[in-house]
Amino acid sequence: MPDEPILIAGGGLGGLAVALALGKQGRRVRVLEQTAELGAIGYGIQLGPNVFPMFERLGIVDAVLAQSIIPRACIMFDALTGAEVTRIPGEAALRQRFGGPYIVIHRVDLHGVLLDACKAQPGITLEPLTSVASFEQDDTRVVVTTDDGRRIEGAALIGADGLRSAVRAQIVNDGEPKPIGYVAHRTILPIDRVPDGVQKDISAIWIGPGFHLVHYPLRHDALFNIVAVFRTGTFGEKGDLDFHADEVERTYRTAHPLIKSMLALMDLNRRWVIGDRDPVRHWSQGRVTVLGDAAHPALQTFAQGACMAIEDAATLAACVEHEQDFTAAFRAYEKARIVRTARVQLEGRSMWDGYHADGIARDVWLQTFARDERAVCECLSWLYDGVTLPGTNARTSAA
Ligand SMILES: Cc1cc2nc3c(=O)[nH]c(=O)nc-3n(C[C@H](O)[C@H](O)[C@H](O)COP(=O)(O)OP(=O)(O)OC[C@H]3O[C@@H](n4cnc5c(N)ncnc54)[C@H](O)[C@@H]3O)c2cc1C
Description:
This protein has helices at 13-23, 52-58, 61-67, 91-98, 107-119, 166-171, 241-251, 257-263, 305-322, 326-355, 359-369, 373-384; strands at residues 6-9, 29-32, 44-47, 74-78, 84-88, 103-106, 124-127, 132-137, 142-146, 151-154, 156-159, 178-190, 203-208, 211-218, 223-231, 272-276, 288-290. With 399 residues, it is of the alpha/beta class. The strands form four sheets. The protein has a seven-stranded mixed beta sheet with strand order 5-4-13-14-15-12-16, sandwiched between helices. The chain has a five-stranded parallel beta sheet with strand order 7-2-1-11-17. Strands 8-9-10 form a three-stranded antiparallel beta sheet. The chain starts with 5 loop residues before the first strand and ends in a 15-residue tail after the last helix. Bound molecules: flavin-adenine dinucleotide (FAD). Flavin-adenine dinucleotide is lined by residues 9-15, 32-35, 45-47, 131-132, 160-162, 166, 184, 227, 272, 292-294, 300, 303-307, 309.
């Protein structure tokens, strides 16, 4: 393959992971990131055991674990009664079954680990304030045009530019993500402000009719991350703090008192409208491809968006290493990833309905979710067993 640099649009988790994987092969990579500072913002993120073999390939297992918390367990609660519905087992059982733990980490810290590792690779250049607008390609190269009119040439282009990807728009052309009628509020606060009675050392999801709430500890148990997600007809409107607070109070009026005590601590100023896309069969075109949210954004049901982006990155780099040219490599990468990522999207949608069901459907879902730990592991094995990378013949266990 040619020695010109590979261009990567977007320096988020997926973009830096693929930059690092390619950089470690000795390739030249230019990461074009629209913001002034790479990864300066963010909330908590959960990562399943399937991501650890990828971290091992990237050489960052120890650095990630040093910044992570391994929750005592991941527990689903009925948001109305407070009863436990089911749980993913704790560390020892997960390591034994899947070869790695379930972790929670501040997104900024994970991004920092990837950034430091990228900076240590001589072939990687990080270019902030570079917003990719469009691309052209011929048989030998790709030329990217930026929003401010610059033209940047490379051997190939990887769009890791997120949910509203400019690179995807040119390949798939399926418009804006579709709002699903739900919004999210996120807050990080000092853990000593968390009310008594809340289990601070677990990753928790409370499911209720039309709403859920997620919480877990962060940063060596100094911080606490809370995410409130709910259905609302006003998702498209611009509201202020009073409007949001009033709506949250009404939505969660039947919720368990512990949920209400956590909502009272949340900063409700900012809200995220949750959007979705349908899975597609192809997301590559010649020497251009996309990964992560640009390729297959999923609802947060499985908390796997970042894991999928990082699996994509490792798979894509392995394909580049083992194929003759970029077109063949991107075709092989796409083929390796399509069904798995579409399953996360589609099963995630179905479970999303289950999380938020009302009436008799809610009773059915609660019974469906109520599995013992062994059955939960079996249900998640398609996901947590991870992937075999092209050119390797075994799933490596890592952590
Ligand atoms: C409420 C919520 C909770 C979540 N929780 C979890 C979780 O617990 N676990 C999990 O695994 N996932 C979770 N996710 C999903 C996860 O955040 C994403 O799937 C993941 O960040 C995708 O990574 P990415 O690199 O593809 O995209 P992003 O992280 O969105 O990065 C895209 C990057 O591209 C840059 N960019 C955008 N456009 C351009 C352009 N035109 N030119 C140059 N640069 C550009 C952006 O500035 C950004 O840096 C959650 C998402 C939400 C909304």
